[in-house]
Amino acid sequence: MRLPPFLQRFDTVNLRMRIISSLIMVPGVLLAVWLGGLAYGAMVTCVATLGLFEWLRLVTPQAKAQTVGIACAMLIVLTTAGFFISISFGALLGVIFTLALFLILIRDHDERAGWAALGIPYMGGSALALLALRALPDYGAAFVLYLLVTVWGTDIGAFVAGRMIGGPKLAPAISPSKTWAGLLGGMALSVILGYLAALFLNARHPAVALALSPVLACVAQVGDLFESYFKRRSGVKESGDLIPGHGGVLDRIDGLVFAGVFAFLFQAALGQQMGLW
Length: 277
What we know:
The protein is mainly α.
């Protein structure tokens, strides 16, 4: 049976794997966010550590296994301190660990020591931001769920619109597959799903989501392009192959990394005046 022209743009096998992987992962993520506590902290730590591992393999594949192990241990200590002690203390450790990792890589004569050491604030900063958002009294879980739905909507909308519409490239020198249509599609779906999520999660002023969601979508796309730049530099298509149909962990969280930090700074600046909850 011949597929309709617009469906022929999709790799149906890959799409099927994406859907299956998402159906397996998403319920667990949502449950961990809703439960909070150790379940959420462990999830954030695990995902951030895997992201750092893939980042190091991406930017400096020649790094010693011992150095990679030390970096991952640093990140686990950083996020654990942020969870059990304070976000500020975790951030302080992040600064110390970034410098320490840089010096270790310099000792190893790693030419990409700076980019590799950036992995600590890149993954650790986003992990601390997500921990801080979930710890917000009264509405932490709701805000993190809203953030996830918005970022996922961005990814889905960009993927579908990019494949179905195509058109001018967004940043051909960095990611040849991304288009302006994909960006607009991602923004549109993020607004729809973000608004519905705000309604479902009993936001006081869900209309604020109509303004915040497209901004988060753009920030998430910047995060996606950031990772794409380094993948292109390294000559690889995916950061890993851990998740069937999606690639690596870093491929799935690249947008959330930037959006999570932005959401934390946004909330820190406005506090209860943010208008949603």
